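Justification of computing resources. Each target in the renewal requires a structure prediction run like the one illustrated here; the chain below, 481 residues long, is used simply to show the kind of job we budget for.
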Amino acid sequence: MQRKFISNLALLLFFNFLIKPFWIFGIDRTVQNTVSAEEYGIYFTLFNFSMLFNILLDLGITNYNNKNIAQHQQLLAKYFSGIVVFKFLLAILYFLITFIVGYLVGYDSSRFYLLLFLAINQFLISFIQYLRSNIAGLQLYTLDSMLSVLDKTLMIGFCAILLWGNTFDIQFQLMHFVYAQTLAYAITLLVVFVIVLVKSKQFKFKLNKSFSILILKQTYPYALLILTMTFYYRLDAIMLDVMLENGEKQVAIYAQAYRLMDASNQIGVLFSALLLPMFANMIKNKKKLDGLVRLSFSLLFVPAIILATVCYFFPHQIMNILYHSNASDSAPVLSLLMFCFVAICSTYIFGTLLTANGNLKVLNKLAIGGVLLNFVLNLILIPKYQAVGSAVASLITQFIIVFLQIIIVKNVFKFKVNYKLLGSLILYILFVFFVFKIINSYVSGFIFQLTLAISLAILFGVIVRLINIKKMVQILIDKEL
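Resulting structure tokens:
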């Protein structure tokens, strides 16, 4: 299984690094710089608002389906027919609640129009993720890797035409960006639906009430977990907008830093998507998990620490390169948020393992605690520290949650404390900080500083065997691993 993980992870990362960096830094950044900061702040607030209730589109079905299909592939046809119609009913509920809450919050007609398309996009994304969970559950990782970047590839094409093509004699507006996303998601949905339809070999567009009730009973713990996690990931921007007089500007500042962290988180999402069916399959067949857990954690931890340290020592240089306005204000937010990335990456390993094992009750308790803690910290910190306060609240919440997850994983799976690995991690963190500090103080030239520091950090990761190239090569050669 380790061999399958490494080979498919390499393919998944290849496709995503080929496409998504250009989307993030070429398209999304250009849009942020093209429209006003306040306009993008409104978009970012409504985008986060549209995600608050998106669990109603899924109710944990995607994770449940991924785990079940990985363990019982013969259920694909039955689940596919039963779930698709049910998801359309969930979409109606999602739209109703989203717009009712938006009305209560006091959104005007222009915000409602933008929210409508953002909500449609959430529906399309949710449907695509469900359909892809079938492909991942069937262990078709190569196909799933290609599908994972289809929507972004289409968006790049559409937005490139709008931004630079001079095809249409119109001035670029934020809604054009949103329309392009909607069209790309719709095309991707159609492609993935056809693929799953071919694999299932049968499909009936008919509501099965008894099956839907059964799915609800089995998926509600997944739904509660995703709902609570969404709230403490997305609450910050909404609270900034509501609590502060200059909320739109502070959201724009926060969004500039958050965008880089959110983009980095996609690496963790890829790990999680690959690991969930693998962990589920290994647990079912009672295979040893510690090897894959250590391997995946090490591969994710090293780049997370490097990236967080880069953003800690060079935040102003990074933000000045990326953005035309508010760069100096968003730099300290970036320094803090990128350490959230380290904690979130760890969650993608340990939280995914607990999800695959069905430990949803304890995960839900942690997530609810995380929401409450994040909400209270934001109430305390936002009035005084504004966007920086939200970043601090996120940092504290994420590290407490992942620390508790690690303890739970150790107790549930009876993992022994690996003092050698723990020592290597501490030594590595100290070394990386020391090297970056020295280079930042005594070496000039941002690009040279960055290249030298990252190279030394990777080299030391190999020396302390957090990156064990010899073992990875052996795993790829040995078909038994």
